[in-house]
Amino acid sequence: MADLVENVLREAAEKESKYKTTEVNKDIDLVIDVGNLMTSDTNPFNAKSSRSNREKYLKDLARDNTQLLLNSIWKLPTQNVDNIVVAQLPDPSTPIPREKPVPKEKALTKWEKYAKLKGIQNKKKSRLVWDEPSQSYKPRWGYNRSGDDTKEWLVEVPGSADPNEDQFAKRKDAKKERIAKNELQRLRNIARTNKSKVPGVGLTPTDAPSKEYLGKALSVAKTSTASIGKFTENLPKEKHAKFQGKKRKFQSNIGNMKDEMSHQLNILNTLGQDVPIVDKNRAANLHIKEMEESRAKQKREDPDGARKKKLTGKRSKHGRLATMKRNLKKGRGGGRGGKSGGRR
């Protein structure tokens, strides 16, 4: 019996030496942030132990601090999820700096500003709606949407419309205009966010033209002639048009002499260099490409032309050979100088 007790005590001592206890004592309590799973150890560093065996000292220190963190986690309320014990972590108490700056707030669109000013709130709508013709649920918008008037096989012609007008094409054109208008509005929102200007798209059709719109339309109509409006007569009491565009600006004939001198010196330095201004290889390649395109075009337009030329050349050659043979049989010379028996 004594031997059995001795063996049990020896095994227990071996297990204690192999597995350390979960109780860790520190001179100064650690600052434990369970929400971030982080501990801060403010105890003084033992320089003597680190010199003797630094790796073992650091491992023991990390093990003890991790054990204290785990002890704090097990004190939290837990729940069983799929046969797994899960601890409910509290909110973090230590502010951690961000890797990147906080993103800026997205600028409001024109409609969002108007809705905010008027107090309009978006009402959540279901994505699918009931479609009576197909007797099924279809998306409210997008592909294969419900109530798509561009796919109807019969369209009623309004009483005020032209009876010869294609109502199907009119609906498709209206849909294209709506898509283009939405895309233009999207680009304008992006330009407004980036504080840049959107290039003009000319005169878009409108139901209620304003005074500015009519003035711009008049200016565009006057400059749409062959002379760009140079010989277009003005209307009575017509004011000067505001929409004339930008004029080219030229340098003055009498200017700064230093700028003029530097400009001329740059031109002389460019002329004195060995590097040609025009790339000869590129110019030659473009010329060869144009020649090949012209030949290919000629072959496409007249495919039998090249074949006729080859056949004509062969016939003329055979014709010359036949003439020379006839001249030899008659006693004439084969050359251009007449008979062969002219000389003795």
How would you briefly describe this protein structure?
This protein is mainly alpha-helical. It has helices at 2-18, 47-52, 54-74, 110-118, 167-193, 211-222, 257-272, 280-301, 305-329; strands at 31-33, 38-40, 78-81, 84-87, 128-131, 136-139.
Shape: extended
Number of helices: 9
Beginning-to-end CA distance, first to last residue:
155 Å
Order of helices and strands: HEEHHEEHEEHHHHH
**Which structural class do you get from the secondary structure elements?**
mainly alpha
Helical content stands at 40-55%
Roughly how many Å is the radius of gyration? 47 Å
Question: What does the model show?
Answer:
By secondary structure, the chain is mainly alpha-helical. The chain has a domain at 2-87. The protein has helices at 2-18, 47-52, 54-74, 110-118, 167-193, 211-222, 257-272, 280-301, 305-329, and strands spanning 31-33, 38-40, 78-81, 84-87, 128-131, 136-139.
Salient structural properties:
disordered C terminus; two-stranded antiparallel ribbon
